[in-house]
Amino acid sequence: MNSSTDLPLPSGFRGIVANLGVKDSTDDLVIVATDGPVATSGVFTQSRFVGPSVLVSREHIANLQASAVVVISKNANVANGQQGEDDAREVVALTARHVGCEPSDVLIASTGVIGRPYPMETIRAGFADISGESWSAQLGDIARGIMTTDTVEKTSSATIAGSSAVVSGVAKGVGMIEPNMATMIAMILTDADISAEVLQSTFSRVADSTFNCVSIDGDTSTSDTAIIMSSGVVTDVSHDAFESAVMQVCTDLTRQIAADGEGAETLIEVLVDEARDEAQARRVAKSIVNSPLVKTAIHGADPNWGRIAMAVGKINDDDIDQNNVVIRIGSEELFPQQVSEHELEELSSYLQGDEVLIHVSLSIGSGTARAWGCDLTDGYVRINADYTT
Predict the structure, then answer these.
(1) What does residue 228 show for φ and ψ, rounded to 5 degrees?
(2) Cα four-point dihedral sign 114, 116, 117, 122
(3) What whole-number distance in Å separates Cα of residue 185 and Cα of residue 167?
(4) Which of 222, 307, 359, 363 could be cross-linked to 324 through a Cys-Cys bond (beta carbons 3.0 to 4.6 Å apart)?
(5) pLDDT tens, 235-255?
């Protein structure tokens, strides 16, 4: 596993990052391209207020192939009617012309404020200005180019066991995060030769266990997009080893997203095991990680395990019996075994760390799931109270 930001893109991919002036002087355009259509899969938000970037990308990815992905950051281009869709398609056309491919082979993602149209005159001029730019972007450049309120770029890379092929990824997202079949914005790139069908099934499984299990604030974005592309340069790659590498990268990115939640100071990981099945374990884990009371307790380093019990109890499943539930923070069992005041003081010290584990066993079956989130701070309130002003 490597999260260095100066890594090159996997073989078969090239990238360009630039500032078009969408909002400020920071980079706001990212294009990742291949020399022709390659196996591609994606998962997207299930919001009913979906943006045109998602609509266009769903349309273009239907054949499970693409030549390029373009990301416009600092503007989500959502809720702008027909003009918003027309603008998204124009950005796709501008990208296709720059890459040298068909517009139908370009996917698009956007992130930023909802309800504001793209500044198309600025974007057109910006595309004209990058005509001579070299395709030399590194993984970290791509990650920085898709940031909005993120405080750090998020990258990860892993070598696929038994081969020279790699899986590399970038992601952004720190708020309005409660995915539903997707994530914020993520691009996963691999030079392994993986068929489109295997790519799709693998990515669906991995995204469901990683990106779909992160929550910052319980709010589903209108623009969530996660894309995986395979350039096919390295052959004879084990499918199991490939899935393992994708899981490593996506889990790492998920943890980075949770740790960088808006205003966050503590990464929260929730493990629920001995559930009836994975679905039940996930519901309980997300109930815990989404609870404002749990989040604020973690922020205050308060080992108030009763709030965890409350979050478990909100799940209205008849087979969850409080007499069989075990609650732990870190490795310390807090229920049903009671702890001393001295042990609670030691636990408070643990809660002041950068990362906290909450472990709940339901004693029902063998289902297991993890969810990731962060504490709730006054910084989150300030960021979102002042977001557009």
Answers:
(1) -125, 135
(2) negative
(3) 17
(4) 363
(5) 999 999 999 999 999 999 999
Mean pLDDT, rounded, for 284-299: 94
Please give the pLDDT value at position 182. Answer: 57
Pure H helices in the chain = 52-60, 81-99, 120-129, 139-145, 196-209, 239-259, 278-290, 292-299, 306-313, 341-351, 378-385
Residue 137, domain CATH:
3.60.70.12
- Please count the structural domains in the chain: 2
User: Distance between CA 6 and CA 14 in Å, rounded?
Assistant: 14
Q: Which residues pair with 359 in a beta bridge?
A: 271, 328
d(CA 88, CA 286): 34
**Same domain as 151, residue 205:** yes
Distance CA 224, CA 150 (A): 15
User: Does 366 map to a domain?
Assistant: yes
Instruction: Identify the pLDDT of residue 175.
Output: 63
Query: What is the spatial distance between Cα 185 and Cα 175, in angstroms, rounded to a whole number?
Result: 12
More confident residue, 384 or 366: 366
Q: What percent of the chain has pLDDT over 90?
A: 76
Tens of pLDDT, residues 142-177: 999 999 878 899 999 999 999 999 999 999 976 655
Measure CA of the first residue to CA of the last residue in the chain; give whole Å: 40
Residue 4 CB coordination number (10 Å): 11
Burial class (CB in 10 A: 0-12, 13-18, 19+), 201: middle
Domain that holds residue 145: 14-259
**For the residues 289-316, what does the mean pLDDT come to?**
94
Q: Which of 45, 111, 155, 183 is catalytic?
A: 183
pLDDT at 181 over 60: no
Reply yes or no on whether 251 is catalytic.
no
Q: Of 259, 287, 302, which one is at a domain's C-terminal end? A: 259
Give the H/E segment covering residue 266: none
Partners of residue 185 on adjacent β-strands: 172, 225
Q: Are 40 and 64 in contact (CB under 8 A)?
A: yes
Q: What is the pLDDT of residue 162?
A: 97
Residue 183 has pLDDT above 60, yes or no: no
